[in-house]
Structures are given as structure tokens and as C-alpha cells.
């Protein structure tokens, strides 16, 4: 099977059919129509076999995850997901793998109302790269640089589930049967907090998604905003699966440095906390206040209640 037949068979009609994609797959480039008064948000993620996923992982789950991790970046900026481009490198054409991968990509793109509008395929070690584009009202994009001293720090959902799922797949940790489905779902099929991200545009002072672990990721907000942060680890939201499967030390390690949660980390000024409570009610998404922004730039303080919390940081680091 040649490149163009591969694209035609598996990727020509992936995702939603959007009216603002004037020209999609099939030409040298896509033509996209940006609404008046909106900004374009663009993000890129690459998943490499042996680094970001196991070569024998379910290809349907890989298609789902590739879309979700990109859409999660758009969600963190308050953007509406719109268009996707895919660069797919494969060692050989495996039609069963392609059918499952494209099915996962297609159904997830459609769920987030995204259309695949272009990309590239080539032969080589397996690598999956996606560029996601979204739109946000002009000047309303959430960034990492707006946190101010006194702001409250929040996270959505629960932390550490995906990292526990990885350990389960690696045979490094046991999880009871009643929790395995939840843990593996969180690892293989993460969700992006798109609706909540858009709702936070006028409330959050800064935001990002959690991909490398809370301990590492919050320092990006600290650096871009030139602030410090104080986090109470006793307030970190943990699922019942993590609580039942791990001792406190392991649970904290997973929540702080496990990564791949794809939850939102954001800050809110004190004057808007009441608005946040009203905002959250329609979404049903649990949100936890875990600390505050402080004035000592670059200093991350961890505590457990009122007591200092000693922690040896870990987490995923590229090129190390």
C-alpha cells in the first residue's frame, strides 16, 4: 500500500466535518476560516514508541490518546478545539494496526468536534506527531504568565491515576480487580477538560494542563509569572483506587510526579473565588484548592497541613 492510498483509506474523513475547514485532506495544505474576533491557538505533541508508549499498546487507545493530549493543551488555554494535523512514521504498513489506530483517532476527534485537515506519512521508527489548532476569543487565551501573589491554586479531577496505571502495566504495582478498569482507563484513555477550560477564561489568572506531574508543571507557572507557590499535599485529590492501592508515600509520589493526568492546573484571584464556585456547578467536575501563590519567585514550598513536607522530586524529563 502506498502513502496516498494509506491516507485515503484511513485518514481522509477523520473527525467531525467542520464548516470552517474550507479545504482539508487531499491538497498541499489546508484552508481554514478563522472567525472574526478570534485568535488561533496551535500546539504540537509527539509520542515515540518505547519512550511515550509501549510498541504493543492497543493502537485504538493510541489514536485516542494522541488526540486527547493535544486537545488538553488547547483546553488549558481556554480554546475551542477545531483542526488536527497528523505526522505518522511507521516501520511498515500494518493494515490491522492502522484500522484500529485511525478508528481511535476518528472517534476521539469527532467527540471533541475536531477535523483532521492534513499531515504526512513516512517510513521509520514508530512516531506519532499531532498539531492541534483551536480558536479563542481575541485576547482571552489563558496562559502560564498571569498568576499573582495571593492567588489560589486549583486542580481538576484526581491525580496519580494514570501513573498508577503505568506501574500496573509494567508489573511494578498491584491493583485490586475492582480498581483496575478505572486505573487503566485513566492511563490509556485520558480526557481533556475542554468545557471547563473555556469556562475559566474570565476567572483564572493562569492555567496549564498536567502532563509531566504537578511538582514539575507548577514550576512552569512560577517561572512565567515570576512568583512562588505553597502547596498543601494533604489537599491533593486522590481517587479511591490510589488510596486503596498505595501507602501514603507512594500516593504522594504518584500525585506529585506521576504525570499524564491531563487535568487542569490553574490559579484564581481571591476576588473571583465565589464566581468559580458558581461556574463549576453545571460541569460536575471536581475541583480542589491545593495552595496559594507566594511572593518569593521560584520557591516552591510543600507542606502537609501546617507542617513542612519533605519530598525528593522525580518526574519525566526529556533528553536526560
UniProtKB/TrEMBL annotation:
It is an enzyme of class 2 (transferase). Keywords: ATP-binding, Kinase, Magnesium, Metal-binding, Nucleotide-binding, Thiamine biosynthesis, Transferase. The keyword Repressor does not apply. Mg(2+) 5 binds at residue 212. It catalyses: thiamine phosphate + ATP = thiamine diphosphate + ADP. Catalyzes the ATP-dependent phosphorylation of thiamine-monophosphate (TMP) to form thiamine-pyrophosphate (TPP), the active form of vitamin B1. PANTHER family: THIAMINE-MONOPHOSPHATE KINASE. NCBIfam families: thiL. Reaction mechanism of ThiL seems to utilize a direct, inline transfer of the gamma-phosphate of ATP to TMP rather than a phosphorylated enzyme intermediate. This is Thiamine-monophosphate kinase. It comes from Rheinheimera aquimaris. The gene is thiL.
Amino acid at each position: 500500500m502506498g502513502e496516498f492510498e494509506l491516507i485515503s483509506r484511513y485518514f481522509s474523513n477523520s473527525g467531525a466535518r467542520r464548516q470552517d475547514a474550507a479545504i482539508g485532506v487531499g491538497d498541499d495544505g489546508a484552508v481554514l476560516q478563522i472567525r472574526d474576533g478570534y485568535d488561533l491557538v496551535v500546539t504540537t505533541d509527539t509520542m515515540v514508541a518505547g519512550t511515550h508508549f509501549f510498541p504493543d499498546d492497543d493502537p485504538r487507545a493510541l489514536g485516542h490518546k494522541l488526540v486527547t493530549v493535544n486537545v488538553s493543551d488547547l483546553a488549558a488555554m481556554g480554546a475551542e478545539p477545531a483542526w488536527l494535523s497528523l505526522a505518522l512514521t511507521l516501520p511498515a504498513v500494518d493494515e490491522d494496526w492502522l484500522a484500529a489506530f485511525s478508528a481511535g483517532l476518528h472517534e476521539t476527534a469527532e467527540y471533541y468536534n475536531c477535523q483532521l485537515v492534513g499531515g504526512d506519512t513516512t517510513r521509520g521508527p514508530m512516531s506519532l506527531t499531532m498539531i492541534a489548532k483551536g480558536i479563542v476569543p481575541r485576547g482571552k487565551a489563558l496562559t502560564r504568565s498571569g498568576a499573582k501573589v495571593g492567588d489560589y491554586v486549583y486542580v481538576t479531577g484526581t491525580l496519580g491515576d494514570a501513573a498508577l496505571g503505568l506501574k500496573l502495566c509494567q508489573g511494578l504495582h498491584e491493583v485490586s480487580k475492582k480498581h483496575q478498569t478505572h486505573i487503566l482507563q485513566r492511563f490509556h484513555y485520558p480526557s481533556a477538560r475542554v468545557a471547563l477550560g473555556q469556562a475559566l477564561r474570565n476567572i483564572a489568572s493562569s492555567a496549564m494542563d498536567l502532563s509531566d506531574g504537578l511538582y514539575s508543571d507548577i514550576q512552569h507557572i512560577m517561572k512565567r509569572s515570576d512568583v512562588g507557590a505553597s502547596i498543601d499535599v494533604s489537599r491533593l485529590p486522590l481517587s479511591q483506587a490510589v488510596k486503596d492501592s498505595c501507602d501514603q508515600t507512594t500516593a504522594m509520589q504518584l500525585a506529585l510526579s506521576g504525570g499524564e493526568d491531563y487535568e487542569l492546573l490553574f490559579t484564581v484571584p481571591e476576588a473571583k473565588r465565589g464566581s468559580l464556585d458558581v461556574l463549576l456547578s453545571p460541569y460536575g467536575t471536581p475541583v480542589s484548592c491545593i495552595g496559594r501563590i507566594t511572593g518569593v519567585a521560584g520557591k516552591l514550598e510543600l507542606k502537609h497541613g501546617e507542617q513542612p513536607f519533605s519530598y525528593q522530586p522525580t518526574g519525566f524529563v526529556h533528553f536526560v
